[in-house]
Structures are given as structure tokens and as C-alpha cells.
Amino acid sequence: MFENRHINWEAKPSENGLYVCSRCGNPLFSSAQKFNSRTGFPSFWGHLEENVQQHLLETYGRDRIQLLCRQCGLHLGHLFQDKRTPSQVRYCINSEAIAFQKER
Ligand SMILES: [Zn+2]
């Protein structure tokens, strides 16, 4: 069974570290890329290197971009347009898909 390492997303806004894939440990996002979307979902405006794979989905006539871990293929969440972020996009991530590693 998975070790329960649930992220308390809103409670620790100032901690620096990395968000890694909860399945394989691949580093996906930096705490510097966090974005408070007020959706309750962990959100980011960018990702680390090439570790996040984008996959275009066509669902119900609408294009959606699915986000996957490049290393193990775990479904992470979706990419949305969002004018509030520095990159104009928002990574909306399932909290079970990522784990937080504090900077040492
Ligand atoms: Zn992974």
C-alpha cells in the first residue's frame, strides 16, 4: 500500500522544496512554481525540465491537455489556460499524484 503522504496544500505556503511523482519520485515541480489558484487543487505555472509530459486529449469536442509523469506515465492532472499566472497556463494537479520533498 501507498504510504500516506498527503500534501496539505494551503497550510505550508513558504516551504521550499520539490514536488515529486508519488509513484516514481521523479521531480516534477518546484515550490517556486506554485500558484494559488483557490481551486483546492495543487496548481503550478510551470514545471521542471522535461519531466512532465503533455498529452493532447479531445474530449467532448474540447481540447484538453493531460499531464503525465514522463518517467512512469502516472496521470498528474491537466493544463489549463489561465491569465492570472506568469506563463498564462495553469497546471492543475491531483494531490495524490505528487509528494513534497523539503529542501535540505
Ligand atoms: Zn512517475
TrEMBL record:
Domain of life, per lineage: Bacteria
Uppermost EC category: oxidoreductase
Source species: Rufibacter latericius
Annotated EC: 1.8.4.12
Designated name of the protein: peptide-methionine (R)-S-oxide reductase
Keyword check for Glycoprotein: no
Gene Ontology CC terms: cytoplasm
Alphabetized GO MF terms: peptide-methionine (R)-S-oxide reductase activity
Domain MsrB, residue spans: 1-103
PROSITE patterns in UniProt: MSRB
Catalytic reaction annotation: L-methionyl-[protein] + [thioredoxin]-disulfide + H2O = L-methionyl-(R)-S-oxide-[protein] + [thioredoxin]-dithiol
Keywords tagged on the record: Oxidoreductase
Matches recorded under Gene3D superfamilies: Peptide methionine sulfoxide reductase
Biological process according to GO: protein repair; response to oxidative stress
Alphabetized InterPro entries for the sequence: Met_Sox_Rdtase_MsrB, Met_Sox_Rdtase_MsrB_dom, Mss4-like_sf
